[in-house]
């Protein structure tokens, strides 16, 4: 919030980046691939785990009501494990983002802010060098 004025001032003087050029760059593609290769499998696994819990709670009453210790049941332990796995996945993603995604995104942003992807001449030169 405090930086809005300075950001607006810089945005008014800086050339507009060619976002299609940025999106087609090898660096951006690698960043997107790294993000997707982490998020999609983890999200899929978590959804399977979640739906398994829901199905067990709905259709396996006898199993979920097995007492483990006192009034603690399998269903309660699995329900608490849902919360624990959510926090664990979040921590894992933060670690992955800090280690792999953020440095790559920072490099791409620095390239954009320095004008590396802002002019049509640069875009044409980039296309020529990749042919």
Automatic annotation (TrEMBL):
Keyword vocabulary terms for this entry: Membrane, Transmembrane, Transmembrane helix
Membrane spanning stretches: 38-56, 68-94
Q: Can you say what this protein is called?
A: Putative membrane protein
């Amino acid at each position: 919030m405090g930086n809005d004025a300075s950001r607006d001032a810089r945005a008014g003087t800086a050339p507009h980046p060619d976002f299609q050029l940025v999106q087609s760059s090898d660096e951006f593609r690698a960043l997107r691939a790294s993000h997707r290769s982490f998020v999609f499998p983890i999200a899929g696994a978590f959804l399977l785990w979640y739906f398994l819990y829901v199905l067990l709670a709905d259709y396996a009453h006898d199993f979920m009501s097995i007492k483990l210790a006192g009034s603690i049941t399998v269903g309660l332990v699995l329900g608490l494990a849902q919360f624990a796995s959510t926090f664990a996945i979040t921590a894992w993603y933060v670690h992955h983002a800090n280690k792999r995604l953020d440095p790559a995104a920072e490099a791409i942003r620095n390239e954009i802010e320095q004008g590396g992807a802002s002019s049509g001449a640069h875009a044409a030169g980039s296309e020529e060098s990749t042919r």
